[in-house]
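LAB NOTEBOOK - FOLDING QUEUE
OPERATOR: T.R.
BATCH SIZE: 2
PURPOSE: Compare the predicted structure-token outputs for two unrelated chains run back to back under identical settings.
PRIORITY: normal
REVIEWER: second-year student, initials M.K.

ITEM 1
FIELD SEQUENCE / FIELD STRUCTURE:
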Amino acid sequence: MTRQLSSPRFFNPLMLWIDVALKTQEMLLSSGSVIQIRTERMARAGLTPNEVDLAEFQLMSHEKLAAVSESSVAMANQLHTTQFALVNRAVKHWLGSGVALFSLATSTTPTQALSHAEAFNSASTRSAEALSQLSSASARIVQRGLKPIHAKATSNARRLAKIESA
């Protein structure tokens, strides 16, 4: 049985990476506005910040440390659960494709060539599937790592925009 490359799972990594790109863009835009608002606030406070300013400046440091810590743990957990097994599978199938290609190249009869061509096609499809899964897993690792930083940046942008407009 041959597998079709038109299966939706082969396009799943693309959608995952598009999601990563969109979340990254949103995070960067939010971070830019947060940096601008906080920098202006620091400049206005000067050398004599009030208690509200000090609390905001302290919150800024704590939030960054918490988000980086949460992001690191999420990425490590995702990496541990999926990536190592998928890399092993991808290498195994890639090597299997190489063996099948070599067998095809050394075929001596048309029947043998047909049999080796089918084996090569099957091995190549398994290799492509494994690489697709590896790409999906990589995107999920990035998504898990981006999630806490994205959440904090976007919530800060909303919160600080409300404070500035009041």
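ITEM 2
FIELD SEQUENCE / FIELD STRUCTURE:
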Amino acid sequence: MVAHFDHVIVGSSPLMLMLARRLSADGLSVMVLSRKGERGGAWRSLSLDSDMVAEAACHLIEPIPNVYPLLEQYSGERFVIQSPQPYRSLGVKLQLDYQGAANRALTLSSLLVTAAISLIQNLAGKRDPLMDIKIGKAWAALASLKAYIRGGGQVQVPVSGYATFVAKLQNAAIAAGAQFEDAELVSVEREGEHLWLDCGPLSFVCHRLEVTASVSLRDDGKRLVPMTGKPAERTSVFVQIQRDCVRKVFSYITFNGRAPLKRMCLLDVVGSDGSKVFVLIELPSSRLWRECRGDVSDYLVTAGILYADTVIEMMFERVEELAWSYPLTRHRSGNFNQVRYWNSRGNLADGIYRYRHFLSFLKTDQ
């Protein structure tokens, strides 16, 4: 017998977990699908060894005004100011406070230019499916700059760590009535007012399909099938460093320019004894640790973050393929107008920059 649901959600990133809770709380039947072992998406945790567990990605939730109270409301997890605050490295000699006026102005300028180009393309008849996302992020950056000028806008983090935060979001969704299955979507067919979902050994029927933007669906005649779009690789490396080898205390750093790494964050590792610092380093696409280990070490020493005699010991390296897809936020494709995409890829703030409309959007567009 095939299970019927009002909504089936593909992907279990934090935004999708919030969506599951909201729809379930409104009295709708909800099923959340995610690949086995990947519940939580990039926000899931991994075991480094038999005794230690750490987050699987560098996380930073942009301080959009009032976004942290919204996350507290949905998860029940308290958010506190991150210490020290993140910063942005534009070079070994130029470092900006992440929420400082200079970095906020640079970010806003970049997003405004991107949004303007998108608008020009649309006026020229070349529709950009990401236009609403680009404009929304520019407005969010402006709000963030205003918050900083008023004396606020500091980055906050969940007090119990990101892994606990995501677990609480999932528990809240389950408590509201949402169900979860480890399954991968194979295809979608429409029959009348229903969507039939083929998930390998499992099948589901629903009225509406909610899809994370990293899972793009292609219209293949009578079916929708997942497509990878333009694939790209991302390499994440878990390393450990003796605590006394860290010259400049940090929490989160994003790197630009010619740096041999993209971002680096201090990990919240359950089971550590405190004598070592556990760090997650994200490398540029397709690069492996063995190819750039020396470059990364030299750069961090030159930038004054580590001492020259530091030994960086790799504990785990993960290379994953990302599907870069560009669907509309409110995607409509042919007769499959029951499929809605959510931009929840990567940084959670990318998915909830429109948090002001989050609740009303769900209520008015069902």
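REVIEWER COMMENT (ITEM 2): The first strand starts at residue 3 and ends at 10.
FOLLOW-UP: none requested
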